């Protein structure tokens, strides 16, 4: 099957407007007869469900959490991008488009990214109307801050709780439609298979996680909004329950999986504390606005700090290496995430890591506290303020911007980040790869859509900070509600999709068979045993850097681990009850297949691009080295075992941006 991105003709600035002018619509009376399933209720799924229901469609929304408010979108901290140019610093739709494509190392589809930049401004208006409490400046206007990879301030934020506030906005919109009866909400339900009839997505098989009951749900279209697959590494910033299952199920039914090797390592996370840790904690990238990243210049000082003989505050400015400012003077601490992460790893690998494990660098706010303090002293007409007064005034400003993040850090690390620098280290965060979709956000299965982090479309090989929330809400509020109508216009006379068909019978039989296996297999090892082993293989061989030898080893090791899993996995409890180990077993089984495809994709991509850093392909000064022959999306077709997956290529053509070496110097 040839890949057709369905990108409309014409100038890029007119594509989306002209496209909307000519697509088919479903009139309001007919929308009442059409059902849509939305799997996942984070920012993408929640906004899509609310908007589709508002338009008049009958929506069934599914989440495995006890409430949509628990979706992992709630953990997003720093902000959401939009090209409003409120700061008057030169921002525009084109600049947001350019920064996103460049930030993704020229590995994303131009038309989708321009549309994202174009609708970004609408998102802010929508969310303000919903009551999202964005930060405001002294005059009452919406405030902005900077994020990595850009030279303007375009990030709207609500302290360090932006994801939570945006999710509550989408959730309130959902609740209104639930009350109207337009959304049927299925909490504590997990999608376990997609049902296709005559080649089209027509429903899902779901498990009630509380009772264990297997349910059939039909619809005229299915939307997957289930987030990313960062937990394939076991340790990540994702919620413990985040998984790839919904996306992997549709992949096995014919949806191509695109760019699985594109994973983002976030540079500002709290370092790992021990072998028994099950999750990593993100510290918002917004902290890099005011925090300066450094390590000691001298190895003697590193040793003294590790042994507790010195504190970081004992080191003078001359004894500190602000390595991002040194290497990337134009962007400094605000280089993109992939660049900042690799730079931290390079310093730590060279022996300059500052914690006991040697895997940490400092994020220091002393300079900003002093700067803000002196500024406030002038505002308050305080002449010759004392050092203590400057600190007091500066701390108040930093606290107003990042207070909840500092509080979270102190609770976890038991150190006061106002008085001593934070310790941070890169960790697995977001996944740019995902289900391949066309311009309509439809997968290679007719009637099956993927939105938000579940698809691949907008971020290329590296996502800029504050763009995840932008894409999720853009897809859900302003893109999918238009494009899905074009497809559903052919279904106005179809009528209800029955669930008593051979296709539903077969899908349910497969799901039950797998559950029966897990419950009855008398293995000797827990699900977490396999997940941790997979995570170690992934981090060691497919983590911040990769090479051909390591990737071949990973493919072999994951294949062997998967074979052991199906022999030795042990799942306690039964299937007719709440059984989190059973749910976890299914998710880890899918991760074991995805992990091998991930490594296979990374092996065939013989270049470095964004978050995918092949050691064989780097510039003399250690930067990523792209190769023109890999200017394509790798879309994998399922053929049984991951080793048998077939590669399809979507060539990426750049007509509006010059492809050149990405530089932040």
Automatic annotation (TrEMBL):
It is found in: Cell membrane. Keywords: Cell membrane, Electron transport, FAD, Flavoprotein, Membrane, Oxidoreductase, Transport. It is an enzyme of class 1 (oxidoreductase). GO terms for cellular component: plasma membrane. Residues 531-664 form the Fumarate reductase/succinate dehydrogenase flavoprotein-like C-terminal domain. Its EC number is 1.3.5.1. InterPro entries: FAD-dep_OxRdtase_2_FAD-bd, FAD/NAD-bd_sf, Fum_R/Succ_DH_flav-like_C_sf, Fum_Rdtase/Succ_DH_flav-like_C, SdhA/FrdA/AprA, Succ_DH/Fum_Rdt_flav_su, Succ_DH/fumarate_Rdtase_cat_sf. Residues 35-469 form the FAD-dependent oxidoreductase 2 FAD-binding domain. The active site is at 337 (proton acceptor). GO terms for molecular function: electron transfer activity; flavin adenine dinucleotide binding; succinate dehydrogenase (quinone) activity. Belongs to the FAD-dependent oxidoreductase 2 family. FRD/SDH subfamily. This is succinate dehydrogenase. It comes from Siansivirga zeaxanthinifaciens CC-SAMT-1. The gene is sdhA.
């Amino acid at each position: 099957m040839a890949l057709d991105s369905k990108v409309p003709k014409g100038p890029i600035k007119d594509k989306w407007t002209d496209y909307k002018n000519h697509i088919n619509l479903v009139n309001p009376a007919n929308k009442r007869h059409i059902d849509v399933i939305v799997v996942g209720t984070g920012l993408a799924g929640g906004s899509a469900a609310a908007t589709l229901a508002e338009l008049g469609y009958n929506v069934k929304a599914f989440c495995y959490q006890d409430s949509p408010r628990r979706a992992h979108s709630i953990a997003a901290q720093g902000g959401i991008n939009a090209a409003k140019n409120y700061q008057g610093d030169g921002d525009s739709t084109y600049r947001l488009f350019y920064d996103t494509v460049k930030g993704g190392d020229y590995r994303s589809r131009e038309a989708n990214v321009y549309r994202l930049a174009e609708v970004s401004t609408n998102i802010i208006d929508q969310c303000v109307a919903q009551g999202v409490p964005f930060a405001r400046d002294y005059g009452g206007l919406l405030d902005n801050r900077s994020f990595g990879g850009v030279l303007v301030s375009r990030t709207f934020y609500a302290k360090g709780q932006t994801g939570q506030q945006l999710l509550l906005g989408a959730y309130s919109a959902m609740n209104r439609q639930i009350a109207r009866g337009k959304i049927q909400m299925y909490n504590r339900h997990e999608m376990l298979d997609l049902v296709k009839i005559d080649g089209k997505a027509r429903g899902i098989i779901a498990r009630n996680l509380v009772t264990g009951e297997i349910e059939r749900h039909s619809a005229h279209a299915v939307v997957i909004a289930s987030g990313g697959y960062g937990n394939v590494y076991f340790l990540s910033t994702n919620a413990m329950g985040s998984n790839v299952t919904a996306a992997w199920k549709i992949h096995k039914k014919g949806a191509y999986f695109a760019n699985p090797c594109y994973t983002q390592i976030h540079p500002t996370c709290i370092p790992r504390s021990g072998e028994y840790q099950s999750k990593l904690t993100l510290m918002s990238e917004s902290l890099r606005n005011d925090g300066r990243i450094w390590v000691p210049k001298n190895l003697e000082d590193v040793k003294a700090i590790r042994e507790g003989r010195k504190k970081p505050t004992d080191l003078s400015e001359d004894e500190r290496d602000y390595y991002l400012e040194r290497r990337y003077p134009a962007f400094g601490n605000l280089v993109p995430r992939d660049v900042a992460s690799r730079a931290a790893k390079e310093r730590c690998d060279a022996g300059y890591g500052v914690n006991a494990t040697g895997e940490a660098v400092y994020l220091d706010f002393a300079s900003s506290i002093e700067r803000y303090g002196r500024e406030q002293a002038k505002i308050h007409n305080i002449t010759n303020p004392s050092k203590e007064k400057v600190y007091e005034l500066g701390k108040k400003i930093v606290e107003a911007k990042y207070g909840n993040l500092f509080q979270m850090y102190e609770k976890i690390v038991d150190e006061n980040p106002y008085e001593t620098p934070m310790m941070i280290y890169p960790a697995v965060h977001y996944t740019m790869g995902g289900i391949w979709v066309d311009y309509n956000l439809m997968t290679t299965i007719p009637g099956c859509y993927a939105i938000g982090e579940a698809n691949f479309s907008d971020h290329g090989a590296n996502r800029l900070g504050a763009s995840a929330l932008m894409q999720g809400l853009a897809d859900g509020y302003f893109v999918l509600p238009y494009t899905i109508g074009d497809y559903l216009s052919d279904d106005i006379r179809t009528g209800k999709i029955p669930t008593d068909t051979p296709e539903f019978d077969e899908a349910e039989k497969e799901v039950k068979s797998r559950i029966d296996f897990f419950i009855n297999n008398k293995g000797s090892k827990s699900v977490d045993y396999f997940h941790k082993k997979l995570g170690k293989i992934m981090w060691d061989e497919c983590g911040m850097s990769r090479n051909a030898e390591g990737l071949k080893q990973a493919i072999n090791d994951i294949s062997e681990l998967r074979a052991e899993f199906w022999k030795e996995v042990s799942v306690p409890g039964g299937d007719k009850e709440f059984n989190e180990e059973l749910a976890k077993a299914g998710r880890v089984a899918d991760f074991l297949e995805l992990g091998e495809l991930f490594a296979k994709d990374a092996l065939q991509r013989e270049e470095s691009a964004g978050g995918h850093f092949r050691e064989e392909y780097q510039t003399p000064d250690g930067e990523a080295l792209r190769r023109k022959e890999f200017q394509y999306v790798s879309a994998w077709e399922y053929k049984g075992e991951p080793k048998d997956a077939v590669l399809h290529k979507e060539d990426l053509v750049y007509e509006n941006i010059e492809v050149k070496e990405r530089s932040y110097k």
